[in-house]
Known about the structure:
This protein is of the alpha/beta class. The protein has helices at residues 3-14, 26-31, 33-36, 83-89, 124-141, 165-180, 194-204, 222-234, 245-248, 272-296, 309-317; strands spanning 64-71, 93-99, 104-110, 145-151, 156-162, 210-215, 236-243, 257-259, 264-266, 300-304. The chain folds into 2 domains: 3-42 and 103-317, von Willebrand factor, type A domain (Rossmann fold); 50-99, no CATH class. The longest helix has 25 residues, at 272-296. It comes from Cellvibrio zantedeschiae. This is DUF58 domain-containing protein.
Amino acid sequence: MNMQQTGLKISEQLAHLNPKGTYVELSNLLRVRFAAQDLRLFVPRAVKSQLNGAERTRFRGRGMDFEEVRLYQAGDDVRSIDWRVTARTQVPHTKLYREERERPVYVLVDQRAPMFFGSQRCFKSVLAAHIGANIAWAALSNSDRIGGLVFGDNNQRDIRPRRSKHAVLEFLHQLQEFNRQLNSPIAPTITKHLEAMFGDARRMAKPGCALFIVSDFHDYNQACEQQLFELARHTDVTLIHVFDPLEKKLQSNSRLSVSDGFNRLQLPTDDSSFQQAYQNAYTHHLDFLTHSTKRLGIPLLSYATTDNLQLLLRERFAAKK
């Protein structure tokens, strides 16, 4: 069996785990746990010394935990000699350290009104919840502490980072609760802006932690870029952009109308100039987001509601056998 056939087989096996529908189901978020065990959120780096532990991390400072004291051997770093034990036993001893493998991982998921939209397979809010669940389960399987932040239009819920299944379950429960509160893609008059979300993330995230932010970033602007710059100075930030194909491009043969609950307006989808203006508005905003993250050196991933999410996550995060 060649690699292409193997990939197709894996894709078929994981197809039932892809998000679907208008609202998220907690049972589906729980079901992705075993599939997410194959994901590695951080690329392992080669170790260069036996004293460096099993895996290098990106923590600031030394970032190593004391493990034991043993007899000094040729080639050991003299700076690691335990002088107290050496003086007491009159035999050189050296300290051994094991590098920390766990790190706090925060997952921020946007569940505001504009996320309550989708034309095929699932809504953006459902896709974002599934992405957040996959990241949370993957972090737990890698022995990382997992915390979260779920945003609605007017409220939010923080989940303190813990290396526990209960932390993930609490996070998934909050995802479902916030998702079930959505009933319209039209944002209320007073709503939480993305800039405020980034500000709350700065308050919550500690230096050295990893931060995954899942949103459609429809209100990303210059103020958000400044907040993101402050975040990226001390944390590893990854942005995950979710969108629906209908937001990107209108189909000329489709008949679409919009309504505010009182009035209905037919969209001129057969008008080429309207189609071009519609597509340009989306492209302009996406280009601004893309160039902004490039300037800041922040990874930006983009997933559509029609994508095979499980397959794409494996292409990006799967551990190489």
